[in-house]
Amino acid sequence: MTSCNHRRKCSVQGCMEKGDIFHILPKDLKTRQAWIIFVHQRIPAKFYPQMFMCSKHFTKDSFQNLRHFKAGFAKLLLLKRGAVPTVSPSQTQAVL
Ligand SMILES: [Zn+2]
How many A from CA of 87 to the centre of ligand 1? Predict the structure, then answer.
């Protein structure tokens, strides 16, 4: 994954997060579908595969290295395999 300076926007409707930490759609099909359902509430006929999800939609235990990341030991905040977003914009609370 390359880093770029473009400001990304979270794909979740109603989420105004424009931070730097975003997660891209996972390769695993099942997990991918769960992400898409979280964003669209269903599997749409067409969707934009360049989906970005900010960290706010995941619970703390969805991350592999939250502690390391917070302590500055890791540059990238990694999601656990199969981590699915569950926190909607109205429920978000600062994880980081
Ligand atoms: Zn978001």
Answer: 9
